[in-house]
Amino acid sequence: MIMPSKHINFSQSLLGFGSYLLQKLETSKTIDDLWNEYLYDYNNELFTAYQTFDNLILTLIFLYSINTIEEKNGIIKKCN
Q1: From CA 41, how far away is CA 74, in angstroms rounded?
Q2: pTM value?
Q3: For 2-35, what is each residue's pLDDT tens digit?
Q4: Which domain holds residue 71?
């Protein structure tokens, strides 16, 4: 599920969800802010794949592990 495959397209994968989240992190946000923005975009068909809150957490862990984002006092931002 991390990588797209024959049966999982890019937007359904955690990698695709990660690229979406990185676009949303142009300004620093909390996890709740990211989740609410995703729900808004999904409900308005701006992001086509359904993701769970667990997938949001897994994607943030993945992005943190590859040193793409950082967290301080509950605020998430992109690394330079």
Answers
A1: 23
A2: 0.88
A3: 566 667 788 888 999 999 999 999 999 999 999 9
A4: 14-78
